[in-house]
Every structure is written in structure tokens, then in C-alpha cells.
Amino acid sequence: MEAAVGAGDVAVVSLDLHKKFSRAVAMNADAVVLKDVRVMHDDRQEMERFLEQFERGTDVVIEATFNWPWIADIATKCGLHAHLGDPMRLKNQRKGLPKSDRKDAIGAGTLWLRKMFPEAYLAPPDVRNMRAVFRMRVLFVRMRTALKNNIHAQLFKLGVNTDETSDAFADAGRWAMTRLDLDDASRTELHRKLGLLDDLMHHIAKLDKSIKDEVRSNEDAKLLDTLPGFAEITSHGFLAEIGTVTRFPNGRALAAYGGGLPLDNESADQDHGKHTGWHCNRFLRWITLEAVNGAVHKSPRMKSLYERVKRRNKNAPGMARVAVVRELQELAHLLLTRRVPYMETPPARPGSRAAQGTSDRRPARPPQSSRAPRPAQSSLEQ
Q: Which CATH class is domain 12-120?
């Protein structure tokens, strides 16, 4: 039963998002439903008319589904405070309870009123734009890889060995493809794929140029570029995925968000070994994993870490890569918070002997025979 809506009565507006519509409920501070409507998504103005009827500063809670950004932007435009909820934790908190669109919306609003709402990061428009550019490049690169593999497969089926050139898609390899003795159908298929590959390469080059232009004026990206294994594209993607580093209290929290922190897996006194959780930012994890090879090759410090972990875990070589991922992510947090570039050999700790310019070695102890006898101690001094 809905109560009458009065000015300032609404404490929270909760939306349960779907592809074509949202179930929205407005609740007062006592979790009483004041309004319960279905807002269709085919008209953006309908969502704006619904949200602008509430007092400015009212909290709006939204589950972080795939289509939350435009609704959060409209809520912000109407002067409301939008908040995202972590889908997995929301689901766990309502496990075993009756489920419907209305109950899901009421449940999220009730959790907010009880200060139990599992809030997730709501990326502002500029961060979302950075992510869109980076993820578009990731998509195009994956399409390029899939297309190249398909072309290799086609040529192998025709008995053409593409291993004779170092890169079948460089100038020499492309020239060799034009000289192949193929039937008309196979040649047409190959030319279409190569044309699509050229289009993808063109778009990737344009994205690379825009990313590099943006990185040149970004001080955070310049700091990350000093990390071993990082470059302009990696730094841009890393910053796009973390949003702002200040939302992570320490490097361990950033590593947990980026999938680089191993988690305990123990039950009934049985330790099943640590593993990285799947509930993380997959793009951030992928970015750092891509930087591992370059980091191990370039940095003696990273190579030493990789080899040590690899020797201890001979049956799980992937753990060495994860160790380097965590080290890079924690170092990235350190660089961005302290505003210092990466140094392969860290500076001496203030107050240490090395910082004071003296030797780290302590003077050698004299032989036992040359030491003076120790004075006797009373029972209170012992």
C-alpha cells in the first residue's frame, strides 16, 4: 500500500534496472514505499520527468548493470546523488528472500537506509570516456588477432606455409600473398579479409594517436610510464580503469581490485592454496599481465621476484606472473600517491647509515680474549 507523497518525504529512490525498463520505488526514512512505477527506457525524457520530481540532493541507488551510465547522468543533471550498488554483493545480501522487480528495488533502498548498501565506484563521464577509448582499442586488437589467425588457417588449408617469413602481414609477407597461385574463390576470400585487416589497423592507429596525445599532457601517465613494462598505451589504460587512485587506501587494495592479490582458500584445517579471485576489474588485470613480460625483461628487480616465486612453485608457474602483477600494481599506487617516478634501486631510508654517507657495516667485535671483564650485576639489574 503506497503512502501519499509529500514534499521532502522521499529519503531514497531505488531503481531495479532492466534492458527495456526500470522498476523505481521512492521510500521515506522509515522504508515505507511512497511511489512505485515502471519507467520505460525507450524515451529518455520519461526517465528525466520521473527523477526531476524529487527534491534536489535526494539519494538515488542503482544496481551496477551494463546500462547504468545514462540513468546516473540524468539523476546528476536533476540534482540528485546517484549511487551504484555492487551486483554480486546485493545478490548475496538478498539470498533466500522472495524475488521480484519490486522487491529487488525495495531491498536495495532498504539497505541504503540501513547504511548497509554495498556501494561500488561510480565512474564520472571523463573516466568513462577514457575507458571507452581504451576498451575499444582492446576490442579492435582482439579482432585483429582473430582475423590474422583466420588468415593463417585459410592458407594452411590451402597448403601454403606462412612460417617462411618472420611476419606474414609485413610488407614482404603481404607481397608474397599477392603472388600466391590461388583459385578465384580463395583469392576473393583472402582479399576481403586483408581489406578488413587494413581497416582495423587504420582504426587502431587513430586510437593510438589520440591516446598518446592525451598521455603527453597527463602527469599521472608520465609517472606510470616510468614503471618497467609500462608504455603510453598501458599507462592510459591503467589510469582509465582505476579512475582515481585516492579511492584506494593502499597498494594492497588496488591489487585486490586489479586481480593481483592472492586470496586464502582454507576450510576445515585444509589449505587449498591461495588464488586470485575472479571478482575484479578484468581489464586492469589484463593490462598488468601484458606488462609482465616487459617488466621481467627490463628490470632486474622484477626478474629476481619472478624467478624466486617460480622456483618455489614449480607446479604452478602462473603464480610467478601474478606476483609481478601485484608488485606492479602496488608500485603504481605508490608512484601516484607520492608523486615520484619509479627507481630501480630505491633511495636510502632517511636516517640510515647509507643516507648519512657512512658505511652500513658495524665495526668488528674484538676477540673474546681482548675484551675487558664485565662487571658483576645485581639481581635487579639482570
A: alpha beta
